[in-house]
Amino acid sequence: DEWLLRASPRDWGVLGVRTDVATSGEAGARNGPIAIRNEFRVFPFPETHGPDAQLNQVLLDLDFRRSYSEPFPPIFDLGDLATIPGEGIATIGERVEMLVSLILERDARLVLLGGDHSVTHWSLDAMLRKYPHLGVLHFDAHHDLFPTITPSMSYVTHYNPFTAALRRPQLQCLHQIGLRMVETAFSSSLKRDERITYTSAREVQALSPTQVYAVAPRKP
Fold first, then answer.
1. Are the C-beta atoms of residues 75 and 58 closer than 8 Å to each other?
2. Is the dihedral of CA 17, 18, 24, 25 positive or negative?
3. What CA–CA distances, in Å, run from 18 to 76, 118, 143, 181?
4. What are 136-175's pLDDT values in tens digits?
5. Which residue from 24, 108, 207, 220 has the highest number of Cβ atoms inside 10 Å of its Cβ?
6. Any residues with CB less than 8 A from the CB of 10 and at least 6 apart, and which?
């Protein structure tokens, strides 16, 4: 891709991964990239980055009563990962990992639009190679930490991408915000990993954004 050849550290790339082959529930997550783009048509994508595009532009956040006058970073929509009929999540994931690695080699930044949560596993693998002391801030109702059926199995689905990621010592911390599930668990699966912390959805409702982020782990 031409963008990969000329991307700079200030650039952002947006890549869609239209798949839900690794979900155990109802299909539909594959439509995520389309839905997100439809909702954010006003966001400054490449077509607004002409020679006069940033003159007198201010980003207004009415929710928090803030305005940002700094120049917008260049944001490029890279389209969607090519769809191959019948392809499984393992090879989809390998292609995601390759593209994420190429983008990180340019020191650019990536926004990945899913798709089911399984693709997180491969993007994290690429990031952990680039950044060996990485922390993850995860917003979700579910923790995505379910174990595989047996320890010898290593498959990745939408409900366990962080299970695989925590096998890597490079992952320094995983802080999850918004958990609101009730589940049963075997006592053998409740081994404490000190890297994992969370703020539940009920707790978030009683806190300000500043208070929510105050409990997130910080780099020493």
1. no
2. positive
3. 18, 12, 22, 26
4. 999 999 999 887 776 666 788 888 899 888 888 899 999 9
5. 108
6. 73, 74
Model confidence, pTM: 0.81
Terminal Cα-to-Cα distance of the chain (whole angstroms) = 38
Tell the residue number behind the tokens 């490449």, with chain if given.
46
Contact 196, 166 (CB under 8 A): yes
In angstroms, the CA 216 to CA 198 distance is 8
What is the C-alpha to C-alpha distance for residues 107 and 169, in angstroms, rounded to an integer? 23
* Strand ranges (E), 6-108: 12-17, 59-61, 66-68, 75-80
3-state secondary structure of 89: helix
Residue 43 in contact with residue 111, Cβ under 8 Å? no
Q: Is 13 left (phi over 0), alpha (psi -120 to 50) or beta?
A: beta
Question: Between the CA of residue 153 and those of 144, 150, 157, what are the distances in Å?
Answer: 17, 6, 12
- Rounded mean pLDDT of the chain? 84
